[in-house]
Amino acid sequence: MNTLLFTIATLCVIGVVAAIILYIVAQKFKVEEDPRIDDVEKMLPGANCGGCGFPGCRGLACALVEQEDISSLYCSVGGADCMKAVADYLGKAAPVKEAQVATVRCGGSCEKRPRTSTYAGTKSCAIASATYVGETNCAYGCLGYGDCVEACAFDAIHINPETGLAEVDADKCTACGACVKACPKGVIELRKKWPKNRAIYVSCVSKDKGAVTMKACKAGCIGCGKCSKVCEFGAITIENNLAFIDSTKCRLCRKCVAECPTGAIKMIGLAPLPPKEKPETKTETK
Amino acid sequence: MKTFPIGGVHPSDNKKWSKAKAIEVMELPDVVNIPLAQHIGAPATALVKKGDMVKVGEKIAEATGFMSANIHAPVSGTVTAVDLQPNGQGLRQMMVTIKREGDEWAEGIDLSADLVKECNLSAAEIIARIKEAGIVGMGGATFPTHVKLSIPDGKKAEILIINGVECEPYLTSDYRTMLERGEELLVGTSILMKAVSVDKAVIGVENNKPDAIKHLRELAKGYNGIEVKALKTMYPQGGEKQLIAAVTGREVPAPPALPIDVGAVVCNASTAVAVYEAVQKNKPLVQRVVTVTGKSIKDTKNLLTRFGTPVSALIEKCGGLPEGDNRVLNGGPMMGRPMSNLQSPVMKGCSGITILSGAEALRGEPSACIKCAKCVEACPMGLEPYLLAKQSKKKAWEAMEQNDIVSCIECGCCQFTCPANLPLLDYVRLGKQTVMGIIRARNAKK
Questions:
Q1: Which of A23, A54, A146, B92 is such that its CA lies 20 to 30 A from the CA of A215?
Q2: B94: which strand partners?
Q3: Chain B residues touching residue A116 (CB < 8 angstroms)
Q4: What tens digit of pLDDT does each residue of B23-41 get?
Q5: Are strands B92-100 and B159-163 parallel, antiparallel or unpaired?
């Protein structure tokens, strides 16, 4: 019985002494942290995706509280509402950024882009692209092994088994940019998000000459420049045999879509332009 | 009999398919594509443009800086393009396209077969000729030879090692070269000895090539300071560091240390023959012996091929590709790179084309790692491949750097030995490339 009492008493004494030491240490080394950081962190989505450039939401919260001017900080997951709420709470001007969405710029589906070899290695885009060109003759397009799928924290990007290409679910996409970083081919781009997920973009990143691109893929951009001539807003530029539509200048007029000979310019959520007499005769006479 | 001390594996050598075939001269192709980057270092700068006429052996591209190599026209004819073309892996690369007309050699090149033993040039003159001839390491690494021979101040070479190991399974191009061009090899070796001013050279040959050892030993009696050393067969003995360890017992420290830090200079056997031709015959590097081999190849051959010849022409010459799945490798089965574009040209580092067919062409289904540590045992650099592969998968580049990934020689022993068929080399190689990129970026910042 004595042993039992003695044990309990000893443990109690140790406990009390340890508690006192811990309390003193905690008081002495207390870190004064702005309580607003906790509040701001709660306002942020808590996805810890790293899309803002900080290791996690707390990193961004610290920066938001500490920095005077927060115009360069933005959480694309929370979006404008979240940023406004945070800015109001902190009494700073809310950073403004247009909503964006990840866009896979490759249209080389299985039927458009013939397979010329079989890849037997590890199913990873990074490894495949370090090894060779890929299963097709296009050195630029989507490989379809899903490094972007693995990188996405929001389940917003998937490989379509029919086309073998990555597809973005625009409703789920938060434009955090993880897939853009994960893609070794640089196929994915963050573009302006239009209402109802409408979009017009060049679905190709091939910098090869037209003839080479055409041989490798029927859906590739051959850099013919027809689209840039027809664009009234100066949104389309041709560089390295490749057309690029600046999504900030584009007004979704759809003229370029009708003009593209290979169908490389893709249109989402928009009805095709009613066939006009003028452009058609133009192409015929050419 | 000696070999290197740690790691290594024993793949079946499969040299029987082509070892008995004497070197044949491959027909000249009608059109050649000559890449400007056939070596480690900066790609050469083209000296020709569309429409130019060139003769065989004429310089068509000049080394860009010290760490680069000249490139010479392998055929005579008209340059039709200097443009991007897909290489063996389908990746776009700058190439000079020449349409062949006849076979006219540039002046001043000795085409006779007479053996010229005398060499009265100084070390600097020899190195200058080697540089001019665009010679690179022909074992596959394509390190410019003149860079290797230019010994930095404060360091001294003590021994020259000629790499006649050819540890890569299937390939027999060095073996045939040693047998058929032994005299040239030995003269080339003496020239190299003079170039790095050493009085001792060792030709390392694995003991699975007894006739080459015997033949070279016989010939070496007529040369001072050249010893032919038989080595116990073990892959990857042809690796520079492994060969130095096997021959001298010295260990080259981790990068950035080089073989010269332990007083060794290593050159491939075919390189030594190329050096002979460059110095004694004034003949630039325009051709090499390429082994075309594989279990299902009708007629395996060792072909003396001009650079720029399409790989498909070589395969056609040997009876074409077998039916079904094939894996065409630029090199041997261990270190060779799979090719997706058979129209791509033979280059300076292409010692063989290995064709694996049917079940051999496919990989085994991977299963879970059972931590048997076979890969650790097999790694000749003393690394831990299972750990590196895992870190690469998790993108833990810093941890990989700490675990000495830059020492990896990508020999593939780990993947070869893995009982779970894990793609260890795939991940390790990706990690190595990424870490090297990070290190380069860091050094550039400094």
A1: A146
A2: B84
A3: 340
A4: 999 999 999 999 999 999 9
A5: unpaired
